[in-house]
UniProtKB/TrEMBL annotation:
InterPro entries xrefs: AMP-bd_C, AMP-bd_C_sf, AMP-binding_CS, AMP-dep_synth/lig_dom, ATP-dep_AMP-bd_enzyme
PROSITE patterns reported in the protein's UniProt record: AMP_BINDING (PS00455)
Similarity-based family: Belongs to the ATP-dependent AMP-binding enzyme family.
Name of the protein: Putative acid-CoA ligase
Keyword Kinase part of the UniProt annotation: no
Record's keyword terms, sorted: Ligase
Length: 554
């Protein structure tokens, strides 16, 4: 373990640096370098479309430099954390770029997170500056941060984006200082070490508390370079991004890829399928990625309107179980588009994706794609022993885009083996051609529309209810979202609990709303094994059966 400028210990060693530098996977090119080169060679080229706002690479670079200077004037030092809790707005691109220029760590926070999650993340990350809206959808972020701020001694500044309020500084004010020569101003920064921590992303864990994932400039650029090679992406491509930029996929392909490939990104901050199709057609989008619900609704809308979206040539789908028939239908409705499944996670962004040239296109529907840029093993889920090709087991991987580790060093002990392979906790099989198929999860995580939900986090709150004797939360199949939480509860003698009371109680904990179980099932007792552990696979099977019966009766 080595100490990063951010203060976190990482798994980075001289041997790892030498290995991936020699292989050419780690180039040392940071986002700051790349953005400066785009601004120098193609300053007028459009980089981002965000509603009525259109910005060029030159404009983005200048705004990034201005914000980096403002952060430095506020006393931020390289390695300190800048957080943003924003929808898919172009300001997120500016914040991410400013962090790269100044050598700060960027921490995106999912917009739907509420007090419980945001408080943990800001404390754990020691965030210095937080960018957020005043309100978006049903969340008043100012009210939330007012509740949390007394317990956040590291937080220096809260900056409001797009809607100033008295007592708060506005994002526009931080960009107001004159910057007549952005290239000279950028040169005044020391320049970030490409092996330093650049991104801090929190992901739900099976133990309840989110885990902080640490990525460097090099690990992120390794993924981006691989995507560019695999997908043959370049300046003539246009990426359409409705997936949240606060998730690893949206972050990489909306905030990083445009600078690396010189391409335009079209952002969408609130998914509406009709508007999404209009945007894709208007801007001639060629590439997009999204979770299963996005693809299902996109295909249905295109078919309903009798369109084909001829410019769209690639759509990657993942983040939640993807039925083979969804990919097959997409290929029929979008004849010019290679639609495929992919597999990855925040810790290892893209382990497998798509179909190699010359291979049967059906593999894009029946598998999670060809392994690329990773060294994958399938091991026995109990012993960790490697298994032969074609045998199912736990997916473990090692490669240039795997994270540097978690913020909590102890979390790395279970996540990595002595050879440096990351244990994903997912189950799968690799065929003789190198195609990976995910078959299940060792973890109990619920994946709702691409969002990872920790059952234990919900269970911990339920157990605080005076009527609850024992509770277990599992995944229930859902037609649109893939999965949704279902709560099985044993109430105490003489007590009662109904669905409305359960919802009201969980809302008082200020959990994100997608974590509130959509079903409540009262049982006399939960199934246990001999050691007293709840048999969640039994409850999952019951939830699947209940969902299937409900669908048949609908």
């Amino acid at each position: 373990m080595g100490k990063d400028v951010s203060g976190w210990s990482t798994r980075l060693t001289a041997e790892i640096v030498a290995r991936y530098t020699a292989s050419g996977h780690w180039t040392g090119i940071t986002l700051g370098h790349c953005a400066q080169e785009r601004a120098r060679t193609a300053p007028e080229r459009i980089a981002v479309v965000d509603g009525s706002t259109v910005l060029s690479f030159g404009q983005l670079f200048e705004q990034g430099v201005r914000l980096a200077m403002a952060l430095r004037r506020r006393g931020l030092k390289p390695g300190e954390v800048v957080s943003f809790q924003l929808p898919n707005w172009h300001e997120a691109m500016v914040i991410n770029l400013a962090a790269a220029i100044g050598g700060f760590v960027c921490n995106p926070i999912v917009p739907i997170y509420r007090d419980a999650e945001v408080s943990f993340i800001l404390k754990n990350s020691h965030t210095r500056v937080l960018f957020m809206p005043d309100a978006f959808r049903s969340i008043d972020y100012v009210e939330m941060v007012e509740r949390l701020r007394p317990g956040l001694p590291d937080l220096r500044d809260v900056v409001l984006v797009r809607a100033p309020r008295p007592g708060y500084t506005a994002f526009a004010d931080w960009l107001a200082d004159d910057c007549a020569e952005p290239f000279a101003a950028a040169a005044s920064f020391a320049g970030a070490d490409a092996n330093a921590v650049k991104l801090l992303l929190y992901t739900s864990g099976t133990t309840g508390a989110p885990k902080g994932v640490l990525h460097s400039h090099n690990t992120l650029r390794a993924e981006i370079d691989a995507a560019i090679r695999l997908r043959s992406l370049g300046p003539d491509d246009v990426v359409f991004m409705p997936s949240p930029v606060t998730h690893i996929t949206g972050y990489l392909y909306a905030l990083e890829l445009p600078f690396a490939a010189g391409m335009k990104v079209v952002l969408m901050d609130r998914w509406n399928v009709a508007e999404g199709v209009d945007l894709m057609a208007r801007h001639r989008a060629t590439f997009s990625v999204g979770a299963t619900p996005f693809l299902l609704e996109l295909v249905a809308e295109v078919e309903r309107r009798g369109l084909t979206l001829p410019s769209l040539r690639q759509y990657g789908c993942g983040g939640a179980p993807v039925p083979p028939e969804a990919i097959e239908r997409a290929r029929t409705v979008l004849p010019n588009c290679a639609t495929f499944r992919g597999y990855g996670c925040s810790e290892a962004p893209t382990v497998s994706s798509g179909v190699a040239q010359g291979d049967p296109v059906e593999l894009g529907a029946t598998t999670d794609g060809r392994i690329y840029n990773h060294e994958v093993r399938i091991v026995d889920a109990v012993t960790g022993e490697p298994l032969a090709a074609g045998q199912p087991g736990e997916i473990v991987t090692r490669g240039p885009e795997v994270m540097l580790g978690y913020t909590k060093p102890a979390d790395n002990d279970d996540a990595f083996d002595e050879e440096g392979f990351f244990h994903t906790g997912d189950l799968g099989v690799v065929d003789a051609r190198g195609y990976l198929t995910v078959t299940g999860r060792k973890k109990d995580l619920i994946i709702r529309g691409g969002e990872n939900i920790s059952p234990k986090e919900i269970e911990d709150v339920l157990h605080q209810h005076p009527a609850v004797g024992e509770a277990a939360v599992v995944a229930m199949p859902h037609a649109r979202m893939g999965e949704t939480p279902c709560a099985y509860v044993v109430v105490r003698a003489g007590a009662s609990l109904d669905f409305e009371a359960k919802v009201a109680f969980l809302e008082t904990a200020n959990l994100a709303r997608q974590k509130i179980p959509e079903q409540l099932v009262l049982l006399d007792e939960l199934p246990h094994n001999a050691a007293g552990k709840v048999l969640k696979h039994v409850l999952r099977a019951r939830a699947a059966g209940d969902a299937a019966r409900a669908a048949r009766n609908a």
